[in-house]
Design a protein that fits this description.
By secondary structure, the protein is an alpha/beta fold. It has 8 helices and 11 strands. The strands form 2 sheets. Strands 4-3-5-2-1-6-10-11-9 form a 9-stranded mixed β-sheet, with helices on both faces. Strand 1, helix 1 and strand 2 form a beta-alpha-beta unit. Helix 1 packs parallel to helix 8. The longest helix is centred in the middle third of the chain and has 25 residues. It is globular, with a radius of gyration of 17 Å.
């Protein structure tokens, strides 16, 4: 395997499947089966998941809601998604722990770095919920922060497109895909990979990012094995 310890970033919207909102149990089960293929190969897996399928703080703020309140609601949405993913993973036979940046002791452990790393060493998948625990920070930022803290080898950003393109391939048929690109070139070309705070934090810590299509069965294993799937962002 090319990577020993990974952080997988999933959007909340990815859990909707073909639905307009909420959680599609079949999509969750598909993800769990894919994740099991890499845990069975000895890869240590941590996951950060968004909450956009349930509530998005920024859109709430744009409709007149207090931004801090909206972001806290978004954090709780990520915990709901984390619980759902934990259930799907355990149904697939994968031992899993949910840690949150906000204290909800009845349903999840608080985030403790050393404890998270110990879980990973024991072969458990660790899901990080609650974002960073602070408003004004996205789950992209939470993903990079947690990846650095647990000393992950790479961030795998699972999306519904198969990499980074010169333009949105769903809107522009002439968009060209990059197989490899540097952090500097992403910034120069104005390409959207993550929000600026998260992307800069990843660049400063020389933490590579791979953007790939999570919805194609087997892609996760191919990426972790080092196959040229998606787009790799390097220093």
């Amino acid at each position: 395997m090319k990577f020993k310890r990974i952080l997988l970033k999933l959007s909340g919207e990815a859990l909707m499947g073909e639905r307009q909102y909420g959680i599609d149990p079949e999509r969750l089960a598909e993800y769990a089966r894919d994740i099991k293929t890499i845990t069975d190969s000895g890869v240590e897996v941590a996951i950060v998941i968004g909450g956009g399928n349930i509530f998005r703080g920024v859109s709430g703020a744009s409709n007149g809601m207090d931004r801090v309140q909206g972001d806290h609601m978004g954090m709780l949405a990520t915990v709901i998604n984390g619980l759902a993913l934990q259930s799907a993973l355990e149904d697939a036979g994968i031992p899993t722990r949910l840690q949150t940046a906000i204290k909800i002791n009845e349903v999840a452990e608080p985030f403790i770095r050393r404890k998270a790393m110990r879980h990973l060493e024991k072969g458990r998948v660790v899901i990080f919920g609650g974002g960073t625990g602070n408003p004004y920070f996205t789950t992209d930022s939470a993903a990079v922060l947690r990846a650095i803290e647990i000393e992950a080898d790479v961030i795998l950003k699972g999306t519904r497109v198969d990499g980074i393109y010169t333009a949105d391939p769903e809107k522009d048929s002439s968009a060209v895909k990059f197989d490899n690109i540097s952090f500097d070139d992403v910034l120069k070309k104005g390409l959207k990979v993550m929000d600026t705070t998260a992307f800069t934090l990843s660049q400063e810590n020389e933490l590579p990012i791979v953007v790939f299509d999570m919805n194609t069965k087997g892609n996760l294993l191919k990426v972790v094995s080092g196959e040229n799937i998606g787009t790799q962002v390097n220093v």
